[in-house]
Amino acid sequence: MTALNKIKDIQKQNNSILCVGLDSDLSKIPQHFGKDINTLLDFNKKIIDSTKDLVCAYKINFAFYEQYGVEGFRILKDTFDYIPKNIFTIADAKRGDIGNTSAAYAKSVFGYFNADSITVNPYMGHDSVAPFLEFNDKMVFLLAMTSNKGSNDFQKIVADGKPFYQTVIEKSKQWSTKEQLGFVVGATQTEELREIRKIIPGHCLLIPGIGSQGGSIPDTISANSGGPAIINVSRDIIYASQDKDFTDAVRKRAEYYRDSFNNAG
Amino acid sequence: MTALNKIKDIQKQNNSILCVGLDSDLSKIPQHFGKDINTLLDFNKKIIDSTKDLVCAYKINFAFYEQYGVEGFRILKDTFDYIPKNIFTIADAKRGDIGNTSAAYAKSVFGYFNADSITVNPYMGHDSVAPFLEFNDKMVFLLAMTSNKGSNDFQKIVADGKPFYQTVIEKSKQWSTKEQLGFVVGATQTEELREIRKIIPGHCLLIPGIGSQGGSIPDTISANSGGPAIINVSRDIIYASQDKDFTDAVRKRAEYYRDSFNNAG
Questions:
Q1: Looking at domain A3-210+226-263, does it have CATH number 3.10.580.10?
Q2: Region at B264 (left for phi over 0; alpha for psi -120 to 50; beta for the rest)
Q3: In principle, which of A41, A56, A93, B249 could form an S-S bond with B240, CB 3.0–4.6 Å?
Q4: pLDDT band at B160 (very low <50, low <70, confident <90, very high)
Q5: For B263, left (φ over 0), alpha (ψ -120 to 50), or beta?
Q6: Does A131 touch chain B (CB under 8 A)?
Q7: Distance of alpha carbon A169 from its chain centroid, rounded?
Q8: Which segment of A13-27, A130-144, A148-162, B164-178 scores lowest on mean pLDDT?
């Protein structure tokens, strides 16, 4: 099965384009978990248990686990293993290097962690992305227009009469098919999102920036123009409550986002 | 002590601008090590023992360890811990993400692994790099002109009348001082290296691309124009021999590169 079909299947089954981002941080999870790093896995399991019928995907941010070193990497692995197999997984790792190095990153993310997809930085060009595309049943989400303020520094620079992020998309879409190649476009960039949909109406977009980062739901859904998309929310769902029964609040926030995305169309 | 001073001190002490890249791969190290992942640490220790008076730095490529998962991450940590404290260490991790995520990567690389520096991808702009620069005694090597073929895809695109990599350097050099900010420039890009030295004569450059990647030593030293630089060689040194006494060959290759760099000026 292609990665794009896996996305479409679970989106239909759960009637949801919501992705929950597991940016789990010891200093932010409910205090009753204590301060042992291993409680992060318990926290993640509770988030997954309470949202798995409401989402199409989980996005796992590698940085939040790598900061705890070897123990964090173990929790990262155990979290991937715990996610039900019908739900799409995104290794949010922003990798990319020369060919033989990208091949090793691909082995790590697709082989060892068995993720369905990875976020990749386009700056180093085709041969830095190609090793990830050799895994036919996986998807690469190339950074195009990111959600942060710093996206103004380089991504919007005009080159050859158009913004740089458009050059990235137009060139890289020739590297693979829409079954294997998607793009990251921030929900805080709705004008650019609308332009991007004219270039790639059928490619899957991974859209972060809703929730704590302030992107507007109606504007994002409108600008996306009905194309295949996975919309991520991290902090505003997983840290919905500090209570012992925090999963009720988590579930309600996830339902709110799922429904808001579905009803904004 | 600033990172730049640590570089200058060890370069003087060992009379060397050579960096050895620990891109250690089970399929390439001498066969007598066997196929257990943990032998990678033994291999790294032997490389370090046999070259530590010939180098200014070790560059550790995270991908080659991450491909082995948790066990690989443990070897990465043990390798960093084994490197003598007077030698400069480079976490070649090519990280970069939105602010709170880059902060977690910085904790991982500078806190947990205690590396002296990291390679960072500039595509996401200032706020994706700033968290790394908050560590005053560390250095960030921003990717400018990489050594691979794919560098032609985006880094050389002309924007506002100049190549994109120049825009990256001119904008980002305002983000910090030369004590904390360096750049990656491939030895396969000598024309661009010469141009870059006109923009940033005093910033430290991390120069990969010599050895297996085919960069010319005299052309690179000439184009660098005497600026502070660390020149990396990985595969051509660490895989110099498949023999049991491979360290003799490793040491000879390292001596050859150290002397070639010193004598080419």
A1: no
A2: alpha
A3: B249
A4: confident
A5: alpha
A6: no
A7: 18
A8: A148-162
SS (H, E, C) A196-215: HHHHCCCCCEEECCECCCCE
Closest approach of A23 to chain B, Cα-based (Å): 9
Q: How far is B131 from chain A (nearest CA, A)?
A: 13
Residue B85 tokens read as 């404290």
Cα separation, A120 vs A102, in Å, equals 10
Residue range A80-87: mean pLDDT, rounded: 98
List the catalytic residue out of A94, A173, A178, A252: A94
* B24, B38, B47 from B42: Cα distances, Å: 11, 7, 9
**Calpha distance A120→A62 (Å, rounded):** 13
More confident residue, A136 or B215: A136
Give me the residues paired with residue A118 across strands: A91, A140
* Alpha-carbon dihedral sign for residues B122, B124, B128, B130: positive
B112 to chain A, any CB pair closer than 8 A? The answer is: yes
Q: Is the dihedral of CA A28, A30, A36, A39 positive or negative?
A: negative
Paired tokens of A5? 């079909």
Q: What's this model's pTM, rounded to 2 decimal places?
A: 0.97
Chain B from 138 to 177: CB within 8 A of any A CB: 143, 146-155, 157-160, 164, 167-168, 171
The 10 Å Cβ neighbour count of residue A13 is: 12
**Is A69–B96 a contact, with Cβ atoms under 8 angstroms apart?**
no
Cα B75 to Cα B91: distance, rounded to the nearest angstrom: 14
- ipTM tops the 0.85 cut: yes
- Test A157 with B154 for CB contact under 8 angstroms: no
Nearest C-alpha of chain B: how many angstroms from A125? Answer: 4
Q: What residues are paired with B20 via a beta bridge?
A: B58, B233
The answer to whether A146 and B124 are in contact (CB under 8 A) is yes
Length of chain A: 265
A122 touches chain B (CB under 8 A): yes
Domain B3-163+179-209+218-263, CATH number (from 1.10.260.40, 3.10.20.740, 3.90.79.10, 3.20.20.70): 3.20.20.70
**Dihedral angle of Cα B126, B132, B135, B141, to the nearest 10 degrees:** -90
Say how far residue B113 (Cα) sits from the centre of its chain: 15
What does the block give as tokens for A94? Answer: 């922003």
